[in-house]
Amino acid sequence: MADGKTWTAGDIPDLTGKVIVVTGGNSGIGYEAALQLVGKGAGVVLACRDLAKAGAAIDSIKASHRNASLDA
Q1: Positive or negative, the Cα torsion across 56, 60, 66, 70?
Q2: DSSP codes, 19-72
Q3: For 7-61, what is each residue's pLDDT tens digit?
Q4: What is the DSSP letter of 1?
């Protein structure tokens, strides 16, 4: 960031009412992004090539965020 401040997930604003599509959401950066976004209230759609892996990612995220709005 230009002001020298390090960006963190805490900088994500409240996303209640927003729907976000995350590509590759079953692993890596996509998974971590989806995890943080649902934590901020967003509904998240995981766009993944493997539906079984997407389902496993959804189960894992819901273990941390029971009321998460997730779909694949």
Answers
A1: negative
A2: EEEEETTTSHHHHHHHHHHHHTT-EEEEE-S-HHHHHHHHHHHHHH-TT-EEE-
A3: 999 999 999 999 999 999 999 999 999 999 999 999 999 999 999 999 999 999 9
A4: -
**Unique residue bearing structure tokens 């989806």:** 34
pLDDT confidence of residue 5: 87
Q: Rounded to a whole number, what is the distance in angstroms from the first to the last CA of the chain? A: 32
> Do 39 and 65 touch, CB atoms closer than 8 A?
yes
The token pair that represents 5 in the structure block: 């401040």
Whose tokens are 């604003």? That residue is 13
